Amino acid sequence: xxxxxxxxxxxxxxxxxxxxxxxxxxxxxxxxxxxxxxxxxxxxxxxxxxxxxxxxxxxxxxxxxxxxxxxxxxxxxxxxxxxxxxxxxxxxxxxxxxxxxxxxxxxxxxxxxxxxxxxxxxxxxxxxxxxxxxxxxxxxxxxxxxxxxxxxxxxxxxxxxxxxxxxxxxxxxxxxxxxxxxxxxxxxxxxxxxxxxxxxxxxxxxxxxxxxxxxxxxxxxxxxxxxxxxxxxxxxxxxxxxxxxxxxxxxxxxxxxxxxxxxxxxxxxxxxxxxxxxxxxxxxxxxxxxxxxxxxxxxxxxxxxxxxxxxxxxxxxxxxxxxxxxxxxxxxxxxxxxxxxxxxxxxxxxxxxxxxxxxxxxxxxxxxxxxxxxxxxxxxx
Length: 381
Ligand SMILES: [Fe+2]
Prior knowledge:
It is a single chain. The chain folds into 2 domains: about 10-165 and about 335-380, 4-Layer Sandwich (Double-stranded beta-helix); about 170-325, 4-Layer Sandwich (Double-stranded beta-helix). The protein has 8 helices and 24 strands. The protein has helices at about 50-65, 65-75, 85-100, 170-180, 180-190, 230-240, 280-285, 320-330; strands at about 10, 15-20, 30, 35, 35-45, 75-80, 105, 115-120, 120-125, 135, 150-155, 160, 165-170, 190-200, 245-250, 255-260, 265, 270-275, 310, 340-345, 350-355, 355-360, 365-370, 380. Strands 1, 2, 5, 6, 7, 8, 9, 11, 20 and 23 form a 10-stranded mixed beta sheet that branches. The two termini are about 30 Å apart. The relative contact order is 0.21. Fe (ii) ion (FE2) binds near residues 137, 139 and 352. This is Clavaminate synthase-like protein.
């Protein structure tokens, strides 16, 4: 499929820079726009484009409203052509781009994975083991709070596997509506109940080495030397920002329950969106061998159908989840990032995932941003 998009020319600080659209294999056409939009940054004057020059360019197009317009239209933008792949380069580029359009860093809360801050507003992507697939999800859509944007950057690419697939959740909504209208109707009516279990510090699982005391979960105020009761009291204060429904179980395991809608609308176009994580939850169970009765995985854990619930406590039929996973696989843009690739993602239009990798080292970084402007927040369905 070929898409015709005009190059963007401009001059910053005496340097002429061109944002040249290019075709990426596997890109899709959604709502009349190419998804994702791919832009090569080049300089018309001699010498390579430096991260500082690229940052000036990205800040400029953000200040002029172009970044927001493109993210609302295309869902995701791949930017290629900036040298020196590093966390520092990513930090420079992403801050220029997001600060330029008035966005603020997203304050992480309730994150059940594991991440490390490696530079200013830059974190490691999920630290889950490399053989684990992370299915399609909108960042923190299982929670009542989530970022408007999650951006990705590649420092090192695996030599086998390790793709970073993206899915347009407008296209996904349309497909589910066409094939399983009852699923859409039930989800619209009932919403979702998400249950999360957070291990106590020191009792983290090998698969997802994280606890409720992590600084991106509920440990923001916990200080060295706090005893367990103080830690729990501090964590509870954070939990209450997400949900009033939580309890402490045996071994100081924290269980939270949240009510989330599952369907939303784009703030830019009002188009309906499939904004949730039910596909990735079922995908995880399926990958571990627990997709069918008796729903026990290779890890010996049980992944019963009752894990997938509507807000009223009733179950989502397993066959609908299986079909949802197939539809998602059918429409994803499956992409292997190269070192230096920057992918700006509108979390309100596009979900993301991660494929397992088998050879080489993969180092992908993320940066999450948010907006206070109610006009830019995702809408109710
Ligand atoms: Fe994610």
